[in-house]
């Protein structure tokens, strides 16, 4: 049975928790013979393909969903469940998202990447759609979940993987700020001005990064922040206004500390940014059958001034962009 969204403009209460009046999936709208299949299909549609195994005795479930730019926010409430994302589910469909879950109610066991975590109300947890995971609740539960596209994260895959299935207590560190933010978005997402959505999504990206930095960098080892900074630079090369201050802010570190991190490798932040831009432009210019004008190549990689681009390119590679493009290929 396909997904059906039921618009109920009246706030309702279930298990004592208010449910916002957004378009909702609700098992109460279906007779028992159809309820389980409807629920399983709808949960997969709203999250990711996975095995949905509710308690056989009684099934009650509701999902509210909304979007902020490319980020999906979902609130799911139901009776006892087991959810499992298997290899065949990943092959069936993978949006490549990193989920951030806030447990509002209940108790839940989560397994991923060889780790097991037990969540209690107020706890936060990250899990990844690209690899198998398993959830088991011990009774009624409510999750608030943010599904953020992984390609938006300026974080190496190895560091993302290190953070899955680990509990972040909402009274500690970055999680203390992130839990209220998720709750606030869940309450007011439907009122969000479309012009503010990209800014909100950017704030969520920064909070994800800060949360992972807390987990990976409890000893404040500089290599973690340096990895975050380099990844952020590479993902934002096309922004001609990108500055060291922007990089520091995205990584939640001071500008002076950012400069010290790059100095340990004998480079500057601006030098690293320039080198990555020039290397990217070089790859485009020598690519077979790549006939895009040189000016557009330069603009794409954050170097819109033709004279400046020619000068720094020749200083780096010994030839101008035009000379490189005209040179015979082996």
From TrEMBL:
Organism from which the protein derives: Nocardioides gansuensis
Domain spans labelled HTH araC/xylS-type: 227-327
Top-level lineage group: Bacteria
Record key words, sorted: DNA-binding, Transcription, Transcription regulation
InterPro entries given in the database record: AraC-bd_2, AraC_XylS_family_regulators, Homeodomain-like_sf, HTH-like, HTH_AraC, Tscrpt_reg_AraC-type_HTH
GO molecular function, one term: DNA-binding transcription factor activity
Protein name per its UniProtKB record: AraC family transcriptional regulator
PROSITE patterns listed in its UniProt record: HTH_ARAC_FAMILY_2
Pfam family, one: HTH_18
